[in-house]
Each structure stands twice: as C-alpha cells, then as structure tokens.
Write a structure and sequence with these properties.
The complex is a heterodimer of chains A (114) and B (114). With 114 residues, chain A is mostly beta strands. Chain A has strands at 5-7, 10-13, 19-24, 31-38, 42-50, 53-56, 65-71, 74-79, 88-95, 104-105, 109-113. The chains are: A mainly beta (114), B mainly beta (114).
Chain lengths: 114, 114
Amino acid sequence: DARVTQTPRHKVTEMGQEVTMRCQPILGHNTVFWYRQTMMQGLELLAYFRNRAPLDDSGMPKDRFSAEMPDATLATLKIQPSEPRDSAVYFCASGISGGTYEQYFGPGTRLTVT
Amino acid sequence: AQSVSQHNHHVILSEAASLELGCNYSYGGTVNLFWYVQYPGQHLQLLLKYFSGDPLVKGIKGFEAEFIKSKFSFNLRKPSVQWSDTAEYFCAVSPSGGYNKLIFGAGTRLAVHP
C-alpha cells in the first residue's frame, strides 16, 4: 500500500529557528503539493511541483519559506526564520499529472513555534 | 478568483440520520470535483471524485455526491450516518488542465452522536 510519508510528524521550535520538513511522494508520482492547515485559514496551497520543477509557489511567504525537490523521491519545505504564526499542520500530497487528478496526502507535520 | 464554498461549518446528527453537505464552486470552465474526509488526528483521504459522465458519483463508506453543473454544486450525501463518520469533510475543485491544483473549501465538521 503506497503512501506519502512526511517527517517529522511533530516539531516544536523556538521563534527564529530554521525548520525543515520532508516529504517522500509515492513512487512514480510526478506532482507534489505542500499545504498548510490552520483553524483560521483552513487548507491553503503553499506550492506545487511537477517533474521536480516548481509550478506555483504564490501561496508561500517568499521571504521566509522555500520549497525544493532535490530529487524525485524527496520534497522539502523550509522556514527560516520561523515565527509563531507559522504554527500549523503542513501536509504534503502527491499525484500523477494528466491522470485522475487525485492527490494522496501524507500524515502531516504538526509545527509549533513558541 | 476560483473559490469553493461549503455552507455548513458544523453539523451535528444522530446515528441513522441522513446527511447532506453543500458545496458550491465558482469557476466557469470544466472542473474535476472531489470530496475528502479527515478523521480526527489523521490526514485527508479521498471519499469520491467526479470527472465526467454520470453526475451521481458513489464513493467509499456509502457516500455519494451529485454534480449539478447549472448550480455549480457538488453536494455530498449519505442516507444513514454512523458514529464513525464523525470527521471533517472538504470539498475541492481542480480546474481541468490546471496541473492538478486543488482548491479546497473551508470544511464542514460533522459530529455524529450515538
């Protein structure tokens, strides 16, 4: 049963620290998405990639967030420096472009910035 | 801008009651439509999806949804809910040809009492 994996599952850090979240998409999937979920804003799309190339990162605060795909099996989302308002659950999802458009979600990283 | 509206933010039902959750979207072109469910503490899972063909779509766990193009709606239904259906439900839209990008509604929290 192929799944999207995310690490770490929980992260508590102090304001100003760098945070790196990792995602391993399902093997063979060529699109990867990063979402942020908060009580106030719901699910927001931060960035997405197709064939490792960033297609849209307009949902990310560019001054502190960055997303990359060093290779087809790893996507990273970094926050530097982190702020309390970044506290949220960050989900990664993967899919196949041109297919059924279904996205498979990972378990999320719960980030708390104090 | 494309958007998805879910009319009910919180729904409370007793077991065996019927469920209907509303979803409307704003997009003039061809869309793919989804309902995702998020059980407490878990990641999003796909309930059902619509791409074309029969506007009445059946999903897992007895859920179904009807696409009414003239109303830009994709309401979720279940004739008889169970306590295990307690979860948050998200409607999502993906414009066809939009690189699989999903636009989510704010979600509806469903609580089913025994």
